DNA sequence: GGTTTGACCATAA
DNA sequence: CTTATGGCCAAAC
């Protein structure tokens, strides 16, 4: 397998992982990358989400490691993301950040006992 | 086909 | 806190 990113499995895995994040929780690009087995490829998580065309994936629950929104607001997507998160109970502070320590999603450990 | 850009991140100074 | 550096690699130019 020479193109692990281009391979359909990567994006698919990203979407499935993000789908697991419940209302009221958020996660980071790096966490999603690690969850699908590619810890250094946070950028590609963002790229995969940018290419999203599926309403079933709660892409708005993915933010950067500072707890802020990483999208340029050219298309109003960042505004939509913040609105959706606030509608789900997330609170943004004066710097536009949420409390990651309290709302960061944790996938179940699958590394065994 | 080389260079730049980008919904990122870790580390160091 | 800010800057700089390096990693990562698909798109866009």
Short description:
The chain is mainly alpha-helical.
Describe the structure.
There is one protein chain. 38% of the residues lie in helices and 4% in strands. With 113 residues, it is mainly alpha-helical. Helix 2 (29-35) crosses helix 3 (42-50). The longest helix is centred in the first third of the chain and has 12 residues, at 8-19. It is globular and about 35 Å long. The model is unreliable at 1-5 (pLDDT under 50).
Topology:
Elements: H1 8-19, E1 27-28, H2 29-35, H3 42-50, E2 62-63, H4 77-87, H5 100-103
Helix pairs in contact: 2-3
The structure holds a DNA duplex (13 and 13 nucleotides).
What topology, given as strand order, has the largest sheet? 1-2
Helix/strand structural class: mainly alpha
Radius of gyration: 14 Å
Say what oligomer this is.
Answer: single chain
The end-to-end distance, rounded to whole angstroms, is: 30 Å
Identify low-pLDDT runs: 1-5
Q: Could you estimate the helical fraction of the residues in percent? A: 25-40%
Shape: globular
> Which range does the strand content fall in?
under 5%
Q: Give the helix tally.
A: 5
> Could you report the average pLDDT, rounded to the nearest whole number?
88
How many beta strands in the DSSP annotation? 2
H/E element string? HEHHEHH
The major pleated sheet works out as: 2 strands, parallel
């Amino acid at each position: 397998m020479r193109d692990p990113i281009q391979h359909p499995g990567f994006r698919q895995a990203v979407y499935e992982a993000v789908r697991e994040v419940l209302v009221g929780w958020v996660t980071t690009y790096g966490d999603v990358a690690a969850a699908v087995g590619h810890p250094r490829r946070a950028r590609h998580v963002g790229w995969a989400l940018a290419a999203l065309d599926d309403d079933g994936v709660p892409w708005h629950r993915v933010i950067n490691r500072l707890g802020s929104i990483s999208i340029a607001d050219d298309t109003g997507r960042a505004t939509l993301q913040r609105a959706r998160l606030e509608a789900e109970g997330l609170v943004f502070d004066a710097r536009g950040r949420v409390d990651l320590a309290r709302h960061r999603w944790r996938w179940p450990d699958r590394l065994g006992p």
